[in-house]
Amino acid sequence: MLTIYHNPRCSKSRSTLQLIQENNQEVEIIEYLNQIPTKEDLRKILKKLKMDPAEIVRKGEAVYKENFKGKEFSNEEWLEILVDNPKLIERPIVVKGDKAVLGRPPENVKDLF
After folding, report:
1. Among the four 35, 83, 88, 94, which has the fewest Cβ within 10 Å?
2. CATH code of the domain containing 101
3. For the segment 8-61, what is each residue's pLDDT rounded down to a tens digit?
4. Which EC number(s) does UniProt give (predicted)?
5. What span, in angstroms and rounded, lies between the C-alpha atoms of 1 and 3?
6. d(CA 12, CA 14)
7. What's the first-to-final CA gap in the chain, in angstroms?
């Protein structure tokens, strides 16, 4: 079973979900802007991604540029920022078991099939 942290308004997220469905993979869809991951959820996801919180921050978002650009934050502070501003979480993230990938490009998800 795959879990996709999905934003239906994002073309990459839609493309990744479509690729999952075309390959007949069972998938749980979490619209993370509505079901905001907790700090603990993000810690687990980041461990599976083998990334630090700053690596999944969408730096093109206005909220990033206005509030966080050019500033230094600890991993714990970034987790709080991401929970408070889920729009900053890079998307989509797809998880299977103890592995996870960013769906950028969408083909990355094939590593989980």
Report:
1. 35
2. 3.40.30.10
3. 999 999 999 999 999 999 999 999 999 999 999 999 999 999 999 999 999 999
4. 1.20.4.1
5. 7
6. 5
7. 10
Instruction: Please give the Cα distance from 18 to 41 (Å, whole number).
Output: 24
| Mean pLDDT of all residues in 93-99 | 98
Determine phi and psi for 7, rounding to 5 degrees. Answer: -125, 110
Cis upstream peptide for 53 (omega within 30°): no
Which stretch of DSSP H or E encloses residue 113? Answer: none
Residue 42's domain comprises 2-112
Count how many domains the chain has: 1
Total residue count of the chain as it appears in this document: 113
Options 4, 5, 10, 42, the catalytic residue: 10
Pairing of strands 2-6, 27-31: parallel
Compute how many other C-beta atoms are within 10 angstroms of the C-beta atom of residue 25: 17
